[in-house]
Design goal:
One of its GO terms (biological process) is endoplasmic reticulum to Golgi vesicle-mediated transport. By secondary structure, the protein is an all-alpha fold. It contains five helices and no strands.
């Protein structure tokens, strides 16, 4: 979330983050990132599969098992955190890509405008040269309009990404609340297990006596 917020606002720290991401995407960086993402995704699928197995076991037993409830809470927390991590990583990658595209578009627009100005200033030739220059100016202006429209579309996408980032921030707050609740449920279930163990121990002692 901190990286996403840094990419959304123009600050000196944003340039440093962009340079770091550029270096990460060079050489073996993409392969390493894909490997880590694939590993996290496999672990996520494993957690979901374990949750499904525990749910089916609970349905077959007809009554919830405290141990299964603890394991279900743990797998649910792991799956939520890993899924959230993968989604945030995808958002960071897309934001970095859009920022680079906007920079390239702006540089291309500036070069096209300079070339158009130089052509406008150099209209001192015969009629054929003037006609050719006029056609080239028209094509350049059309290209500039297309680039401006594409730049506006990129800006809208960046704003949409900012809105998604705010929504993700709110969702992360909900995940933190859910995490606190799961920890509390986990502690309660552990207390119940300890109470059950103590009861079983006392019953065994009474039987032995």
């Amino acid at each position: 979330m901190a990286l996403i917020l840094t990419l959304l606002f123009q600050t000196p720290l944003r340039k440093l983050v962009i340079m770091t991401l550029d270096r990460v995407k060079r050489g073996r960086g993409p392969v390493m990132v894909k490997t880590i993402a694939g590993t996290v995704f496999i672990v996520l699928l494993s957690s979901v599969y374990s949750m499904v197995k525990i749910q089916n076991r609970t349905i077959e037993a007809g009554a919830p098992n405290p141990t299964d409830q603890v394991l279900m809470s743990r797998h649910m927390l792991e799956a939520s955190l890993m899924g959230f991590l993968l989604f945030l990583s995808l958002m960071i990658d897309r934001l970095h890509h859009y920022i680079r595209e906007l920079r390239l578009l702006r540089k291309t627009m500036e070069a096209a405008k300079k070339q158009s100005r130089s052509l406008d200033d150099g209209k001192n030739g015969n009629s054929q040269e003037i006609k050719a220059l006029g056609e080239e100016i028209v094509s350049l202006k059309t290209k500039i309009k297309n680039l401006e429209s594409e730049c506006e579309a990129r800006v809208k996408e960046a704003k949409a990404a900012e809105t998604e980032a705010e929504a993700l921030q709110k969702q992360s707050e909900g995940f933190l609340l859910e995490y606190d609740r799961l920890l509390e449920d986990n502690q309660n279930l552990r207390n119940q297990l300890e109470s059950i163990d103590q009861t079983l121990t006392q019953s065994d002692v009474k039987k032995n006596m």
